Sequence to fold (522 residues):
Amino acid sequence: MANLQPGNSGLTDRPQVPIPAFDPPTKPKRNKFAFACAILASMNSILLGYDIGVMSGATIYIKKDLKISDTQVEILVGILNLYSLLGSAAAGRTSDWIGRRYTIVVAAAIFFVGALLMGFAPNYAFLMFGRFVAGLGVGYAILIAPVYTAEISPAASRGFLASFPEVFINAGILLGYVSNYAFSKLPTHLGWRLMLGIGAIPSVFLAIGVLAMPESPRWLVMQGRLGDAKRVLDKTSDSKEEAQLRLNDIKEAAGIPQHWKDDVVTPPKLSHGEAVWKDLLLHPTPAVRHILVAAIGVHFFQQSSGIDAVVLYSPRIFEKAGITNDTDKLLATMAVGFVKTMFILVATFFLDRTGRRPLLLTSVAGMIVSLMLLGVGLTIIDHSDGKITWAVALCMITVSSFVAFFSIGMGPITGVYTSEIFPLKLRAQGFSVGVGVNRVTSGVIAMTFISLYKAITIGGAFFLFAGIASVSWFFFFTFLPETQGRTLEEMETLFGDFFKWRSTAKKLKNSKEIYGDSNVSI
Fold:
């Protein structure tokens, strides 16, 4: 029997065509080997997290024991971020020279020495030297962990896996808070030294864990070791076909002809040193310039919105809010660390489902509201003669909500986004630029927060951070395209076409509004 269907003029007889059954899209499976590699590499980030967390409480006892001023406390807390710049700058070149894998060992070894030096420090000057050595190790760690994880991950789960470094930073912060509380009952001169010195233990396990990790396939291709790269890609991909496609993309990005099939080849000379910096900073293409602006912006705003002020100075914030007992301050701080760690897990499961932009914009919006309310609560307490219970509760809730919103977007996406957007030959150095901006901004915030809140009140300081976060929301909305599901080799094209796409979409939207053209698709 003929199936009658409406046509352009009347009804026409058309043979009935069976409609194929619709299979809903399946959830992308997680590659277990890539998952394990990402876990091992990202554990390097515990080093930074532990140092941030432990210093927030240790400074209470260091100040009492060594009789140092608030200015010296600011310098002690924040200077590690500036020291880490040297480590990050060296890590980019080191990772291109000896590989991503062994650079992780270098990071762990340097931090191990630094932690021991801080633990045995007899005075402030020696403690500062230990901070310098530990800062170098932290600089190596915060650069290499996201780069390695992004390069080992398939595109379908790269957001999930590349968020692991931020997960472990949060785990390290929580461990630091727990260490503060655990050793707080010891004699003052012994407690803070154990808090700092015990940080050497994780670095030992990190160095051992590297033995189970393969080298980054992209670094192997840069060395001309195509066979080794293919074997790693076979293990970290869901199929042989996917592994071959990833290899072809990497070869194209590295300038290696696709017809070269040997296991070991001599690749075209890639830019290192001066040539890389020239391509990145002096004469970048429009796409690379956009990538660089996006990377610098996301790292700058992550820190300038006040996260380190909250994490490093939580005990002081709670003291200003009316909690005066040292043990109670450390317990409240530990609760903040727990919230921060729990909410980072939310981000890991949504990065590859909802995308980077929605999570980031939602995160920043929540941070703005939290900072405003925290500023209100602290201002009310500051201008009150007695203890206002509801304002104290408001401060505790908004500190927790601020770190929670930070953890679902701004925290993990900064590392994920920056590690995936740079072209292969510029990736290590480009990421180091972002990390450099991140550490400088963090260092400035950490070394000036006490002076800042003394100058404009502690409530005023958080109103300032809220204003900066508001600017960041508009920056992210304007400059950051969605990278979900894109391969690393597609990023340059994506950024090069981003503003062209926005301009075209605007014209199409105007056309639809003016002419009522229902066929215009935006």
